[in-house]
UniProtKB/TrEMBL annotation:
Location within or outside the cell: Mitochondrion inner membrane; Mitochondrion intermembrane space
Cellular component per GO, a single term: mitochondrial inner membrane
Protein name per its UniProtKB record: NADH dehydrogenase [ubiquinone] iron-sulfur protein 5
Disulfide bond found in the keyword field: yes
Keywords noted in UniProt: Disulfide bond, Electron transport, Membrane, Mitochondrion, Mitochondrion inner membrane, Respiratory chain, Transport
Disulfide partners: 15-49, 25-39
Bilayer topology: Peripheral membrane protein
Family per record: Belongs to the complex I NDUFS5 subunit family.
Function: Accessory subunit of the mitochondrial membrane respiratory chain NADH dehydrogenase (Complex I), that is believed not to be involved in catalysis. Complex I functions in the transfer of electrons from NADH to the respiratory chain. The immediate electron acceptor for the enzyme is believed to be ubiquinone.
Length: 100
């Protein structure tokens, strides 16, 4: 679990809001099946914030495209399949949790 306090001691840490949303979702849903159905997106958001795999992959894809353009081997059709939204480093979209 991340600390709620940022490294400089001011404000909250970078991933704490994602962790808090995930824990709140886990608390609201009691059985395992509900948790899997409703909290997976929150878990993915938190995991992405901690590790940044999608962002790193997107950065590597953009680097490859830039190198291909410089080398003259750029073919938009070839790279289009890799530029799907799940590779763009965007967060998962899920409905906001209902307030009680």
């Amino acid at each position: 679990m991340p600390s709620a306090i940022a490294l400089n001691g001011e404000g909250v840490s970078r991933c704490y809001p994602f962790w808090y949303d995930f824990v709140k979702c886990m608390y609201v849903h009691e059985n395992h099946q509900e948790r899997v159905e409703n909290c997976t997106a929150f878990n993915h958001d938190y995991y992405e914030c901690m590790h940044g795999f999608k962002a790193k992959r997107r950065q590597a894809d953009l680097y490859r495209v830039e190198q291909a353009k410089r080398n003259g081997t750029w073919d938009p059709v070839h790279y289009r399949s890799r530029m799907r939204p799940e590779f763009l480093g965007t967060p998962y979209h899920h409905p906001p949790a209902e307030e009680e």
